[in-house]
Specification:
The structure holds two protein chains of two kinds. In chain A, helix 1 (15-23) crosses helix 2 (27-47) and helix 2 packs across helix 3 (52-68). Chain A is built from eight helices and no strands. By secondary structure, chain A is an all-alpha fold. By secondary structure, chain B is mainly α. Helix content of chain B is 79%, strand content 0%. Chain B is built from six helices and no strands. The chains are: A mainly alpha, B mainly alpha. The interface between A and B is large, with 44 and 34 residues.
């Protein structure tokens, strides 16, 4: 069973080294990349509207696709950013399948959660509206918004990952914020 | 805090709870297991497929281009050759003797026979030189 790298290690290997190791057949390098990025990917997918019941499967699927296609990753952006865009594609495919099978996801509020239900309901009302709003954004706006506001990425990085210009990324973000603010008011 | 800052603060929390519930170790093990269990053959096939398509397209272009080039090269020489033969026949018919004319007609008769457009039976022996010339001119078209 693979163990995570010791926390005391001064400088963990960069993603590029792990990618090269995985390309050389090192499964533990792949496992380490999963440990580093799976939670951010899950957060991105959940923020983009992935049903929580499917989140684990979607995360796995995105990671598998990324590892299979890693030869096409040219380092134009960070590995994580590239992985998140693959997650966006996986989520889009999942949405198509769900639409075909008429799957109606459970309401977030009905899911079992930790913490006080009343407090959660108050704090979660605006968040629920935001989740719905983000989900209803056009895909590029949604991804730019999440990459910027949720993941804290720079516009240049976002533009490189989404194969667009920095200016276009700013415009998408601006439109997304405008629509979401209207929704939340 | 303005609206945009509030929105960004909320966005940072978006999906955080669901992500916290993800069992990362289990996910890592499952991903490695799937990468091992689903061998790269599928991935290799997906890479090979466009390669094969490219090779097939190149072959089609090569063979098709070759055929077109061959046709273009052969057509002028064939038509030019035919023209030369017709020219030769027209120029020299008057100089040929009756026997020579019969020989030419026999050769032409064989050629026409090969092309499946055999002329009605002619007894060349019965024709004189003038008639033979007339037959040859008629064959010239």
């Amino acid at each position: 069973m693979a163990q995570p790298l010791p926390l005391t290690e001064p400088s963990p290997p960069p993603d590029a080294a792990l990618i090269a190791a995985w390309q050389g057949g090192d499964e533990q390098a792949a496992a380490e990349l999963v440990r580093r990025h799976a939670r951010a990917l899950a957060r991105f997918l959940a923020g983009a509207g992935a049903p929580e019941a499917d989140l684990d499967d979607l995360v796995q699927e995105a990671l598998i696709r990324a590892f299979r296609a890693v030869d096409r990753f040219r380092g134009q952006c960070q590995f994580r950013t590239w992985l998140l865009t693959i997650g966006g594609n996986v989520l889009k495919d999942h949405g198509r399948r769900a639409a075909r099978h008429r799957v109606v996801p459970l309401d977030e509020g009905l899911r079992a959660r930790d913490g006080d239900p009343h407090e959660r309901a108050e704090a979660g009302e605006a968040e629920s509206r935001l989740v719905v709003g983000v989900k209803e954004l056009p895909r590029l706006q949604r991804e730019v918004f999440l990459l910027r506001a949720q993941q804290g990425l720079e516009y240049g990085e976002i533009a490189a990952a989404l194969n667009t210009t920095e200016g276009a990324a700013r415009v998408h973000y601006h439109h997304a914020v405008k629509r979401l603010k209207e929704l939340l008011q | 805090m303005n609206d945009e800052a509030k929105l960004e603060a909320m966005a940072q929390r978006l999906g955080a709870q669901a992500a916290e519930r993800l069992n990362v170790e289990r996910t890592a093990a499952a991903v490695v297991e799937r990468l091992r269990a689903e061998p790269a053959s599928d991935a290799r096939w997906s890479w090979m497929q466009p390669s094969w398509l490219r090779i097939a397209a190149a072959l089609v272009i090569l063979v098709g281009g070759g055929l077109i080039a061959r046709q273009l090269l052969l057509q002028p020489s064939t038509s030019g050759g035919g023209h030369e033969i017709a020219h030769f026949v027209r120029e020299d018919l008057t100089d040929l003797s009756a026997d020579q004319l019969r020989e030419v007609l026999s050769t032409l008769d064989e050629t026409l026979d090969l092309r499946g457009a055999r002329t009605p039976e002619l007894d060349l022996e019965d024709l004189d030189a003038q008639q033979l010339r007339a037959v040859l001119r008629s064959l010239e078209g």
